[in-house]
Amino acid sequence: MSGSAIGTDSPAAEMAAATPTVTQKDQWMVESQVFHTYQHYSSLPSKAQAVLLELQRDKHMEFLTKGLRQLGPSFSVLDANRPWLCYWIIHSIALLGDSVHDNLEQSAVDFLNRCQDPEGGYGGGPGQASCFAILYVFYRIDICFLLPHLATTYAAVNTLTTLGGYRSLSSINRMHHGGEIDVRACYTAISVASALSILDDELVQNVGNYILSCQTYEGGIAGEPGSEAHGGYTFCGFATMLLINEANRLDLARLIDWVVFRQGVEGGFQGRTNKLVDGCYSFWQGNKVLKELLSLTRLPIVGREVEGGFRDKPGKNRDHYHTCYCLSGLSAAQYSYSEDADSPPLPRAVLGPYSNLLEPIHPLYNVVLERYYEAYEFFSRR
Ligand SMILES: CC(C)=CCC/C(C)=C/CC/C(C)=C/COP(=O)(O)OP(=O)(O)O
Ligand SMILES: [Zn+2]
């Protein structure tokens, strides 16, 4: 899909003509150069080097589909993160403009359905409560005992939105009671309620006051009142304030200052003061939500381009979380200059060849934009 976003009269044709042939050795040279850059805090790769940074879509797809298959034929691996793994992998695949095979899609929908609590919300997997987990492990009794949780509910709803279609969207029961208290919980609850068109005054009551109480003296937002400001929670807090139309209550000038100063000289963002940059903050901090900052956004090139997948920083192992958020941050940066989703980004907004262009995301929910529209249509009519 990404390729088709390039118009015939697009300046991408110019860029494509200028793109040199890239060997695997070039790829490694560029990556090791960036690694060197990262180690010594000097400068970003030059334009000539950047043009060699071609996204290895096939390798990323291989890594991602292998990850889904490793969950087992009915996603039976015992891991409380399975709804998150589904989201990180399936959203990454959608960002690459690809889709999962129909039988894997069916397994994902069935699995998430088994994680769903009859009262609403999703747990980390069927059989997550300890005594029932023992039954599950020893007797393979999939009794669907659930411990619904806001974070896994967000992951499940975003996965089902990304899969799209009647089978997937109609499997969501739009009810849930209770939950934990912090800024991530505010975001996951408000994001899910908004995406499913069930946001109401009762749910929104006091949420803005709570988030205001988490904005720190530095200007960023902490997970709880009195804690340190952090990029992940700053995204959650700010996105929530936008979703409930209360963003202007925050001290936006200090918030912007805080985010700008989180950008490292090597490109990319650190999550908090005096910490190292990490690829996932390219989404949490570099996202279009913080629009004023977009012209400053640069991505650390942390792809494991030969084997597929992305990682926190060079030297670390690849994982599905960082693959999801590096690709999400990359997409946000690529579309940062675009006025609307219908006009494809200019080549200068796409690091490397124009074929690196990913699908656009909805910056508040972090699902591919067209899947968000489909879900919006679906739920706003029910
Ligand atoms: C919706 C959703 C999933 C939200 C999650 C938001 C998020 C990423 C919160 C970050 C939590 C946190 C304090 C990480 C610090 O990890 P660290 O100390 O290992 O990292 P650091 O050195 O970069 O701070
Ligand atoms: Zn990270």
Automatic annotation (TrEMBL):
Keyword annotations from UniProtKB, A to Z: Metal-binding, Prenyltransferase, Repeat, Transferase, Zinc
Subunit field text: Heterodimer of FTA and FTB.
Superkingdom of the source species: Eukaryota
InterPro entries, sorted: FTB, PGGT1B-like, Prenyltrans, Terpenoid_cyclase/PrenylTrfase
One GO cellular component term: protein farnesyltransferase complex
Requisite cofactors: Zn(2+)
Family: Belongs to the protein prenyltransferase subunit beta family.
PANTHER family (alphabetical): GERANYLGERANYL TRANSFERASE TYPE BETA SUBUNIT, PROTEIN FARNESYLTRANSFERASE SUBUNIT BETA
Catalytic activity line of the entry: L-cysteinyl-[protein] + (2E,6E)-farnesyl diphosphate = S-(2E,6E)-farnesyl-L-cysteinyl-[protein] + diphosphate
Gene3D superfamilies found in the cross-reference section: 1.50.10.20
Name the record gives this protein: Protein farnesyltransferase subunit beta
Gene Ontology molecular functions: protein farnesyltransferase activity; zinc ion binding
Function: Catalyzes the transfer of a farnesyl moiety from farnesyl diphosphate to a cysteine at the fourth position from the C-terminus of several proteins. The beta subunit is responsible for peptide-binding.
Domain Prenyltransferase alpha-alpha toroid: 55-367
EC number, UniProt record: 2.5.1.58
Organism: Escallonia herrerae
Record's keyword annotation contains Iron-sulfur: no
GO terms classed as biological process: prenylation
Any one Pfam family match given in the protein's UniProt record, by short name: Prenyltrans
Note describing how the cofactor binds: Binds 1 zinc ion per subunit.
